[in-house]
Structure formats: structure tokens, C-alpha cells
Amino acid sequence: MTRAGIQRLLITAAAVLALEASCRLGYVGRATMIPPSEMLAELVRLMGTDGFWSQIGFTLRNILAAAVAAMVAGFAGGVALHALPRVRRAVEPLIASYYALPFFVLYPLFIVLLGMNALPIIAMGFLYAVMAMVTATLSGLDRIPPVLRKVGRTYRLDRVQDALLIQLPAAGPHIFTGVKLALSYSVTGVIGA
Amino acid sequence: MRGLSSERAPVPQDPAGASHPAHPIPFGRTPGSNGLAAGAHAVMTGVTRIFGSAVHALGPVDLELRRGEFFSIVGPSGCGKSTLLDVLAGLSAPTDGTITFEGKRVRGTVPDGVGVVFQEDASFPWLTVRDNIGFGLRRAGFRGPEAEDRVRHAIDFMGLNDFADAYPNQLSGGMRQRVCIARTLVMRPRLVLLDEPFGALDQQTRLLMGDELLRLWRASGATVLLITHALDEAAMLSDRIGVMSSRPGRFIEIVETGWPRDRTSAIAAEPAFGEVTTRLWNTLREESLKAMASQRRVAG
Ligand SMILES: Nc1ncnc2c1ncn2[C@@H]1O[C@H](COP(=O)(O)OP(=O)(O)O)[C@@H](O)[C@H]1O
Ligand SMILES: [Mg+2]
């Protein structure tokens, strides 16, 4: 392990110990937070019960479903907005303020619309994740150097070849960032819901 | 047919790298041309390019590139050189005028047989040097040992052997430009357009690359159009040099050097070389003085 890694580990351990001590000594009330050691014990107990692993599996499945849907829709949305600059200008304010919207007010509505099942949960995860994918796709496409498009034309690529062989790989790093973000945002959305 | 060039020194009959037997001929001869055939290869007639409604970038320009010649364009920056290249290559449409390549109108697409090396770094960062250079061959359906051979030779010729499996971001700007030159030349274009390809290189490397370009030009028999801002480079490499005015760029003079086909950068030691550079310099100096004067009139 690197020096920095060891230091990070020690700092984390010290913080957990300090938290444990302040809970035990009554600086932090039980109603605010139970001591970390009791959390761990409870987690071990829960892992022994039936239903725990199926719950975990259920949640993971929901996260995955939300993330994949967000990636596909976000990518498609990003490509479409990039191709339609007028529409993009019109929705730019929505994109910019998207994460300030209180999605959780929609949750009850989703339950009414979609039923008491996994769908409303997935929908929440999707809503959290999709715009991260849209913005990552847009910034990836914006940053393709125009000269690469010209190179494509000198090799007489058609539009599909140009998209697959030049634009997609050129925007690749940004789109990959979008994929990572979509995954972590859908975790937030699904667990929150 | 060659009109003006009739007073030039006699052209050696076997130019295919014979004067440099130590080197392989990596890019081979361009099929369908022997480099010596006379006549117009690419022609621009009354070409202008106006961006939007206000920026008159180019023209009107008339230019006739002779088959197999080495033509350079010099001119102040921003005068429309890159714009001329884009229009000639079919990458952007002229506002007015016509372009023909090998007798056919150029319209909207880059004709087969035209290769372009751009001013900006145009290597593909997601491909290795080898795959960058082989890109066009793969697109054109060339695969197998012959294509691999061409790519290997190109890597060798460009001095990229140690970097064949490296990615462009591991290379210097000059090496990336070599990758782009190789990627264009493996296609054996009959007309090669180069936009300030040595801009990122130091002076020594520039000279070496200039010699290599001459060797490639002789070996391939292709027609070369080189855009450069270095007057000595233009004087050293070219059969003819077009001097452009400041924007909107027009040709104010076309200088014929009369160099033998079998030349190297050593030509820079000849008295005639000094005459050519002086002439280019004087033409450009008058032009910039005029441009400055007219700017002052506008400002005042
Ligand atoms: N796409 C464009 N839109 C508007 N103006 C442009 C565009 N491309 C080039 N220009 C302008 O046209 C002029 C000529 O540009 P360029 O051909 O790149 O010059 P050079 O290559 O000689 O330096 C410049 O004034 C430049 O700002
Ligand atoms: Mg330019």
C-alpha cells in the first residue's frame, strides 16, 4: 500500500473511533445516531435473516435497470440535442437547473401511475441519472476537434461510418464519464426512493 | 502543354528514388501517373469564399496545378490559404467559381485520389500510430499482408519504428504530424494537399522533412500543393510558388523556380535560391505595406 493510502486508512479509522467514543460518552444522543459498532452488529444480524439478500438483489437490479435506461436515453437525448441546436438553446435552462428540481415530490405520483412495485423506484433512479448522461454526451460531442470531421470526409466516410469510427471514439472519454456518473446517480436515486 | 516550364532544366527520366538507393520507396508510385505527364491536374476558376455575409476570406482566385508539379503557396496569416485548400479539396463549397480535378467538377465531396494533411493535429487519439496510419487503407477495403506492408514501410520511412504501438498523446507534436502525413500518403494520392505541415517542427527537422517530402514527391509522381509561411521552405522545395495577398487572398505573383526535379535542400546554397527568396520577400513586403497603409486609412 502507498504511504498516502496508509495515511488515508489511519485517518478514517481515527474518525470512526472518535464517532464511536462520542456516541458512547453521550455527546451524540441515541436518537441522532447509534454507535458505529451497533450498526455493524445490526448489519451482521440482518445479513443472517431471510430476505436480506433478496432485498439487496432487488435493489441492485433496480439500480442497474435505472442506470442502463438512463445511459441509453441520456445518450440518445444528448445526440439529438447536439444535432438540433435550436431545441438545445430552448432547453438549456432546464438542463442547467435540472439537479435543483425536487424529484422526490414526484415519487407518490409515480406510485399512483406505475403501481406499488419496482417501477417507481427505477423511475426515480432514472430521473437522477439521465441528465448526467445527457450533459456528458453533449460535452463530449462539443469537444470533438472539427478537423477530425474533415479527416473523415477526406476518407469519404458516410454519416454512419463518421459517427461510429470518428465521432463516437473521439467523444468516448466524456461519454465514459457519463456512464460512471449515471451509475452513481442511479444508486442515489434508487436508494433514496 | 507545360508552357512556362519549357525553360526549366531537363527532368531526370527515372525519378523513382533512384538518387537515394539507400532508402526504400515506402509509399510506392501513385497508380495511373508517372509524374511527368503534362497538363492541368487541378484547376480553380474564379473561386471565392465568403463566410456568412461579411467575411470575404478568399478570391477571386484562378489556379492551375500541373500534373506532377510541386506548387507552394505563401501569404500572410489569415489571408485565406487554409480556406483555399478546403475549397480545392471539396471540403467546403466555394461561394463562387468552379474547381475541377482530373477533368471532373469537385462538388461537395473529396474526390478519390486527393489526400490532405491539415494544419491542426488531426491524429486519432484513440488509435495507435500503426492503426492511425492504416485507417484509410482499412476504410478503402485494403487488408492483409499488402496493406500491412505498406503501413510498416510508412512507419519505417517516417522514423516512427519505436512508436508504432504508442498512442498520439505519447508523441511530440512533430511526430504526430508525421503520423498524419504517413496516414495520407499510404493512400497514394495523386494530388497531395499539405497545410503548413511542418509548423510544429524545429528548423533542422523542417529541413529533413522537406527533403523527405521531395523524395516522396519524386518517388510517387504525385502533384503536391504545399501551404507554408516559410519563404525559404517554399523556395527550396517548389517548382512554382504562388504569393497571396492579404485577405481576401488572391494570387499577386507566381514565381517559377526552374529547379531540376532531382533536387534536395542543398539547393539553398545556390545563388538562384537567394534570388527566388528575395523576390518572394519583396513581393510580400510590398503587399504588407499596402495592407498596413489601407488599414491606417480605415482607422484614420
Ligand atoms: N468557418 C469560418 N467562419 C468565418 N470565418 C472564417 C472561417 N474560417 C476562416 N475564416 C476567416 O477567413 C480568413 C482566412 O482564414 P484561413 O483560410 O484560415 O487563413 P490562413 O490559412 O491563410 O491563415 C480569416 O480571416 C478567418 O478568420
Ligand atoms: Mg491556415
Automatic annotation (TrEMBL), chain B:
Coiled coil: none
Keywords: ATP-binding, Nucleotide-binding, Transport
Region (Disordered): 1-31
One Pfam family cited in the UniProt record for this chain: ABC_tran
GO MF annotation, one: ATP binding
Domain ABC transporter, residue spans: 42-271
InterPro entries according to UniProt: AAA+_ATPase (IPR003593), ABC_transporter-like_ATP-bd (IPR003439), ABC_transporter-like_CS (IPR017871), ABC_transporter_ATP-bind (IPR050166), P-loop_NTPase (IPR027417)
UniProt xrefs under SMART domains: AAA
Signal peptide stretch: none
Similarity-based family: Belongs to the ABC transporter superfamily.
Protein name listed in UniProt: NitT/TauT family transport system ATP-binding protein
Species lineage: Bacteria, Pseudomonadati, Pseudomonadota, Alphaproteobacteria, Rhodospirillales
